[in-house]
Design brief:
By secondary structure, the chain is of the alpha/beta class. It has a single domain, classed as Rossmann fold (3-Layer(aba) Sandwich). The protein has eleven helices and twelve strands. It has an eight-stranded mixed beta sheet, with helices on both faces. The protein has a four-stranded antiparallel beta sheet with strand order 2-1-4-5, covered by helices on one side. A hairpin with a 5-residue loop joins strand 11 and strand 12. The longest helix has 18 residues. The two termini are 25 Å apart.
């Protein structure tokens, strides 16, 4: 799938045909199906979709943290900095996690050890990946706390002594302690109130510039995507259905699901009594529809949509879509739009 202008040395992460299932007594959960995704160096990719779309599973797959059993990576390649992570041993992955790829989870309350002071938790990450003394790791831990806006005097405090927003700053400090090339943030502001969300997002933008890291930001909030991301991947039922640059996606959405997402967001310039909604519900990942997974809810669906899974088609300017009717409509010159 050619969905990025990045190539050669500019490409940091290249996911090819990744399929992840959870095999349970009740059946097989098709969490991620044939996922193709690219992230360039220094690029921020917004990973958007409803709860249950497979975003977090894909992120855990990149980190090689899929719980097994029941999780199984069935097929695919995850090329990071020229190396396939799926061919790495667990010992090799332990040296990559934290040092080269770090992840911020959505709930800071459960990400921190409640019986360790925060400086020790940051220092532990530093000592794991750098050859430094205990004293040096503690000094660096204090530096990281100051970098995320926490006074050095508080480095000996325990997590319960911090607010939710401060805990998330500590989690960010741990993630960035070893200057990773790729940062995966899984809905990092979900557990925070709106004011603190804005502060944390501004901090993440500042730190991303400081560390010149690539980032995958998993979210369902299109406002956050507009504020932070360079590229956007829309995910539905385990598959990326549309990929584009941020401006291109916001001004020219193509896939019916993407159009439905934008139509469900309130418009301050329009006075409407009721927002448009996408009919129906996301399919059961244990029982996905045949053909295109979105076709039972789609206003553009044709008879063949229930039979054949659509190929991903490049519609120009690095914009790709997995929708045969919409791609054909564009090719005929009818344009996109809402």
């Amino acid at each position: 799938m050619e969905n990025s202008a990045h190539g050669g040395n500019d490409l940091l992460l290249d996911i090819q045909g990744l399929t992840i299932h959870y095999v349970t007594d009740s059946g097989t959960v098709h969490a991620v199906e044939n996922l193709n995704l690219r992230v360039g160096r220094g690029e921020t990719l917004g990973f958007v979709g409803e709860t249950g779309a497979g975003k977090t599973t894909a992120a855990l797959g990149i980190m090689r943290l899929i719980p097994s059993p029941p999780g199984v990576i069935k097929s695919g390649r995850i090329i990071f900095d020229g190396n396939d992570l799926l061919e790495k041993s667990e010992h090799e992955m332990r040296s990559i996690r934290g040092a080269k790829i770090a992840m911020i989870f959505q709930d800071p309350m459960t990400s921190l050890n409640p019986v360790m002071t925060v400086d020790k938790q940051i220092a532990e990450m530093i000592r794991l990946h750098r050859n430094v003394s205990d004293a040096e790791s503690m000094r660096l831990a204090g530096d990281m706390l100051e970098l995320v806006g926490i006074r050095r005097e508080r480095m000996h405090d325990y997590p319960h002594q911090f607010s939710g927003g401060m805990k998330q700053r500590v989690v960010i400090a741990i993630a960035l302690a070893c200057d990773p090339g790729l940062l995966i943030a899984d809905e990092p502001t979900t557990a925070l109130d709106v004011t603190i969300q804005a502060q944390v997002l501004e901090l993440m933008k500042k730190l991303k510039r400081t560390f010149d890291a690539s980032m995958i930001l998993i979210t369902h909030d299109l406002g956050i995507v507009a504020d932070i991301c360079d590229k956007v991947a829309i995910m539905y039922a385990g598959r990326v259905v549309e990929y584009a640059g941020k401006r291109e996606l916001f001004t020219n959405p193509v896939h019916p699901y993407t159009i439905g997402l934008f139509n469900s967001v309130p418009d301050l310039d329009e006075d409407v009594e009721r927002l448009a909604v996408i009919p129906g519900l996301m399919p059961d990942p244990m029982d996905l529809p045949t053909g295109c997974a979105f076709h039972p809810r789609c206003a553009f669906a044709l008879p063949e949509c229930s039979k054949d899974s659509p190929d991903t088609v490049d519609v120009g300017d690095g914009h790709s879509v997995a929708c045969a009717p919409r791609a054909a409509e564009l090719a005929a010159g009818k344009g996109a739009g809402k």
